[in-house]
Amino acid sequence: MKIALINENSQAAKNSQIEAALKKVVEPMGHTVDNYGMYSATDDVQLTYVQAGILAAILLNSGAADYVVTGCGTGEGAMLACNSFPGVLCGHVEDPVDAYTFAQVNDGNCVAMPFAKGCGWGMELNWEYVFEKLFGFGSGKGYPADRVVPEQNNKKILDLVRASSMNDLIDTLKKIEAMEPVEGITNMEHLVSRAVAGERFRELFFASCKDDAIKAYVESLLK
């Protein structure tokens, strides 16, 4: 499994610590990690949690990543942004129980974590335990034992509901990219092209992208 790590600007200073905890846990399992940044609070390209959602959608829908780990101060904003897009099923995960139950009951492909709230002494241990429970026991097996069949059935229903309610990703991205300025709202122009302008985006994305249509659209943004 290829796991993408995305940090928005408020918690970018923790990127290397999160990456280290993630790699420590998942690489022995045979997974790989692609770190899409932000890498520091002073990166030239600044990502908001909304753009973390945009980037997660591009990576997952294109096949450039199988799973996304992201977050923000509380994890709530990143979770809401990610779940605004087709092909992304993001859970809000604070602790190992959240991680295990999300993996087994909801069988998603993205988590949003709080990287400020509750992140003091021992935070790297909590991250490691979260990643162990998230990636170390498979996914979609149901929980608890007496609820396996109905929980798996509910997940299938959720997938069908989401497929019915979500729009085509490229059409959605084009509408977002073309949004006109709104009085009283700053930093909203060209959200998509700025989301894919990160330092290592080209290197990581084009080496792994499996969807020609998404690849072509992204290429048009980067010209």
UniProtKB/TrEMBL annotation:
It comes from the Bacteria. InterPro entries: Ribose_5_isomerase_C (IPR022133), RpiB_LacA_LacB (IPR003500), RpiB_LacA_LacB_sf (IPR036569). One of its GO terms (molecular function) is intramolecular oxidoreductase activity, interconverting aldoses and ketoses. Residues 191-221 form the Ribose-5-phosphate isomerase C-terminal domain. GO terms for biological process: carbohydrate metabolic process. Pfam families: DUF3666, LacAB_rpiB. NCBIfam families: PRK09273.1 (NF006753). Belongs to the LacAB/RpiB family. This is RpiB/LacA/LacB family sugar-phosphate isomerase. It comes from Candidatus Ruthenibacterium merdavium.
